[in-house]
Amino acid sequence: MQTILGAGGATGIVLAKELRAYTQQIRLVSRKPVRVNADDELFPTDLLNAREVENAVAGSSVVYLTAGLEYNSKVWKRDWPILIQNVIDACLKAKARLVFLDNVYMYAASEIPSMTEQSAVNPPSEKGKVRAQVQDKLLGAIQENGLQALIARSADFYGPDVQNSPLNISVTDEFRKGKKAFWQVDASKVHSFTYVPDIGKSLALLGNTPDAFGEIWHLPTSSEKWTGKDFIEMIASEMNLKPRFYIFTRWMMQLLGLFVPILKELKEMAYQYDRDYFFDSSKFEKRFSYKPMSYAEGIRQTFKNQ
């Protein structure tokens, strides 16, 4: 049995499809799970409830944690420590291997222009501090309790059927409303994005590669150095629109954040847009001979059925 915790998002859906290459026994766990494959086992669970998580993980050989929480620092501080401890305890009891899908928020701001698995951990944001605590709990459980686990990191993501990607929020959705797109702070800076189908494929591959555990892996991401302006222009081309956009500055975030809570949450992450943001996945690519999706083709595939 291979189990996905937080199975309802775009990544969980792709992962469920990819796991069919490795197993016919797939358990989907979330508050209201929905089948992806015809014979998936559905297991409604509150990941903040230790007993429910233990029951959801029981009998699993590999567990994938792809869950997300509301994008709010207070929620993250309150809930992530509970959630990750529940999952660690359940995996230890079930003797299951754990694959944790992570982001890059824990890296020092100075590392953002060239992120690797060895990048220094020194988060400048409150949400980043929470992710660093989660990493510490996992690495501690590996070293002290014998947990078989790995951390799989993604850059910002995009792809077909993805609703909450920065590219959707700031570009595609605005164009569809007949408005200008916007980009945070500086559209001339490089910004890496990971293609969600690549995330799903690579998580399934890692979970079924026993000697990959005990390590941190950057998931396959194009090495092309596209800027925010490049992404806006490509998306506009796919939508047969002019690439009209404006820069969403820090002072705008500060002002509008008084009325729109999510903008207040974005402000502390603005450092990821005032410099190049390049995500190096060469370790994974070399180990598995994997070629990530190019940005041009990834965007074409994203709009193929829209």
TrEMBL record:
Classification via Pfam families: Epimerase
Protein name: NAD-dependent epimerase/dehydratase family protein
Organism: Dyadobacter sediminis
InterPro entries xref list: Epimerase_deHydtase, Lipid_A_modif_metabolic_enz, NAD(P)-bd_dom_sf
NAD-dependent epimerase/dehydratase domain boundaries: 4-212
Coiled coil: none
SUPFAM superfamilies in the record: NAD(P)-binding Rossmann-fold domains (SSF51735)
Domain of life: Bacteria
